[in-house]
Amino acid sequence: MARRSRAREVALQVLYQDDLNPQHDPADDELFVRNRLQAGELIEFAGSLIKGVRANRAKLDEVLAQTADHWSLERMAATDRNVLRLGAFEILHSETPFRVAINEAVELAKRFGSKQSAQFVNGILDRLLVGHEKS
Fold first, then answer.
1. Cβ–Cβ under 8 Å, residues 73 and 120
2. pLDDT tens digits for range 111-124
């Protein structure tokens, strides 16, 4: 597994924890990330993804809700919802090439989601990208 892919995987696990257990202590997240990644640049990359999604979560959720016709974020599986947040953050707020961000999100959905997750995530992020490129 590519190194940045592993950092995204760890970031997804932290974001999933945020989503399902909002009372948890975020200070524990730093230790979790350090224990899983060890390499400084990967810890920094995962941390930037986590901080970025947290800081922009309301706006990301708004954009995703507008993009995902007939799907409210609450109805989505928690894994899919957090993969989408991560992918949307990378598309809208990072230096990651758009197609790389979508491909990485699809791979996370395949690994952690249901049978339909990869197709679902790909469809929504593709639509988000088309809308983003137009604006």
1. no
2. 999 999 999 999 99
Whichever domain contains 14, its CATH number is 1.10.940.10
Under 8 Å between Cβ of 92 and 63 = yes
127, amino acid identity:
R
Domain total of the chain: 1
- What is the C-alpha separation between 113 and 115, in angstroms, rounded? 7
Using alpha carbons, select from 39, 13, 40, 41 the residue that is nearest to residue 28.
Answer: 13
3-state helix, strand and coil shares in percent for the chain, rounded to the nearest 5: 80, 0, 20
Look up the pTM and report it: 0.94
